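ARCHIVE CARD
Drawer: 12
Card no.: 0347
Subject: one protein chain, sequence and derived structure
Cross-reference: see card 0346
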Amino acid sequence: MRLHIAAVGRLRQGPERALVDDYLARLDRTGRALGLGPANEIEVEDRKGGGMAAEAVLLERAIPAGSLLCILDERGRTLASPEFASQLASWRDTGRGDVCFAIGGADGLDPALRQKADFALSFGQMVWPHMLVRVMLAEQLYRAASILANSPYHRA
């Protein structure tokens, strides 16, 4: 199952970029044997200042056709890491070819895009900077693959 991260904003060189690259490389190595990955990033940027609605249009264009859409939103479901791993495995095992995780910009996701989501995932009730959400998602994808592979990375 291919994994896509569609995100508003460009991650430039720096600690966040290094962390995302590291976790996605680890995911590629661990997840390949499990049928997870590769993972790729799709970055969109609203240069005209159209706000959430314009960002939603750009995100929708970036989401691969036929993908299960999982949005990152503080109103979504909060899962423990093993539950997230089980959810990924369930999507994979039911024949999903692609899962796309959408991360909005500084103001979040447009309500119209939220309505189209198949699943909404939350990293808690706190609001996180969207660039850190990308790092946390990459780490949790790698952690999920590690859990499914029975690797010692995740210590419950």
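Annotation on reverse: The radius of gyration is 15 Å. The longest helix spans residues 130-148.
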